[in-house]
Design a protein that fits this description.
This protein is mainly alpha-helical and about 130 residues long. Helices cover about 55% and strands about 10% of the residues. The longest helix is centred in the first third of the chain and has 38 residues, at about 1-40.
């Protein structure tokens, strides 16, 4: 009986944490869409398709999902140099956007869950803070 109660409590706590995370992710994605519209849409376009051979696509992007830390670093600090996205080579500069870490969290959650991208792991503030130049 004691094991059953312990198991039940564990399930309830885990379920509570899972359900609590969903609204957090939804809120982050909503805030991220506004940040995207303010800072990113000019180059990466409204639908995340970018500009061929100039600004890489964020839509259905293998780079975003396979190189998560590098993607966060690019949004946080800007980036320059060559990268390959969906088999196409890009060699351009992304200026630092001047975003706060919380804004990086939100815009990353937005792009990782938009236009055919799907991330099973929410970007967190701790994760963004751990990314350094």
């Amino acid at each position: 009986m004691k094991h059953l109660v312990s198991f039940y409590l564990t399930v309830v706590v885990c379920l509570g944490l899972y359900l609590r995370q969903e609204p957090d992710l939804r809120g982050s994605i909503e805030r991220g869409s506004e940040i995207y519209a303010d800072f990113c849409v000019t180059c990466h376009k409204e639908n995340g398709e970018g500009v061929p051979y100039t600004f890489p696509p964020l839509a259905n992007s293998d780079y975003l999902l396979q190189k998560r830390a590098e993607s966060i670093k690019g949004v946080k600090y800007g980036r320059q140099g060559e990268l390959i996205v969906n088999g196409v080579t890009y060699n351009n500069t992304m200026a630092p956007l001047g975003l706060e870490d919380e804004e990086v969290v939100d815009v990353m959650n937005y792009i990782l869950n938009s236009w055919g991208n799907s991330s099973d792991k929410m970007v967190t503030l701790e994760e963004v803070k751990s990314i350094t130049k």
